[in-house]
Amino acid sequence: MKPIRTESIEPTDAYDRIRRRFYMAIPLYLAVPAVFWLAFRYAGFPADWAAFGIGAAGWWAALLLRGPIALLVRKQPKERAGLLVGAASGPLEEGVRLLALWITGFSFNSALSLGQGWAAIEVVFAVVNGIVLATVIKRTDEKAMQAKAFLESTGQMNSSPLWGVLERLFASMFHIGSTLLIAHMPWLLILMIPAHTGLNLISVRLAKRSLPLTELFVAAVGIITLTAGLLVWQ
C-alpha cells in the first residue's frame, strides 16, 4: 500500500479570484485622475497640459532617484532596507516637486495641473504594478512565492481591490494638496518632507494590521492636505 501524500494544496482559486477582481477594478483606478480633472475643469480650472506632463515626469524622476538609495542599502536586512528606501521618499518627492514648480511657475493653475499629473502617473504605475503582480502569482517559482507571501502578509488575499482604488484617491489628494501648499509657500517644503515620509512609513506599518485602518489614515492625511492646499489660495 502506498503512503498517503500530505502535500499542501496551493489555493489557486484564491489567486485566480484576486486576478479577476483586480482586472475588473482597473477602470476604477483609471477613473481617479479623470475625476479630479473633471472636477477642477468644471470648477473653472482647466488642465495646463504642459504642467501636467512635467508633474508626471517629476514623479518618475523621484522614483528613479530611489534606485541609488536601494543599491546603498541592499546589504541591510530586508525590513530595514525597505524602511530606509521608504524614508527617502519624502525628501526625494517633495524636493523634485519644488524643482518641477520652478520649471512650470508657482501660479495656482500650474500647481494644480502639476499635482494632477504627479498623482495620475502614480495611478498608472499602480495599475501596471498590479498587472505584473497578477501575472507573477500564476507561477510557482521563488519570485511568485514571495509575491504570494506579500499578498498574505498585507491581508490582500480576501480584501476587495476597491481598497486600492480608495488609496489612490486619497494619495492623489495628498499630492495635489502638497503641490498647492509648496507653490504658495515654498518654505512649507520643510514640513511636507516629514509629512510625506510619515504617510508612507505609517501606511506600510498599518497595512500589516488592518486595511480599513490604513485607508482611514491615508484618507485623513489626503483630505487635510488637499483642503489646506486649496484654502491657502483663497
Describe this structure in words.
By secondary structure, the chain is an all-alpha fold. It is 79% helix and 0% strand. The protein is built from 8 helices and no strands. It has helices at residues 12-42, 49-72, 78-104, 108-136, 142-153, 162-184, 189-207, 211-231. The relative contact order is 0.14. One of its GO terms (molecular function) is peptidase activity. One of its GO terms (biological process) is proteolysis.
State the share of residues found in helices, binned by percent. over 70%
Mean pLDDT over all positions: 87
Main pleated-sheet profile: none
Which class do the helix and strand fractions yield? mainly alpha
H/I helix tally:
8
Number of strands: 0
Concise summary:
The protein is 79% helix and 0% strand. With 234 residues, the chain is mostly helical.
Brief descriptors of the model:
234 residues; globular; mainly alpha; 8 helices
Topology:
Layout: H1 12-42, H2 49-72, H3 78-104, H4 108-136, H5 142-153, H6 162-184, H7 189-207, H8 211-231
Helix pairs in contact: 1-4, 1-6, 2-3, 2-4, 3-6, 3-7, 4-6, 6-8, 7-8
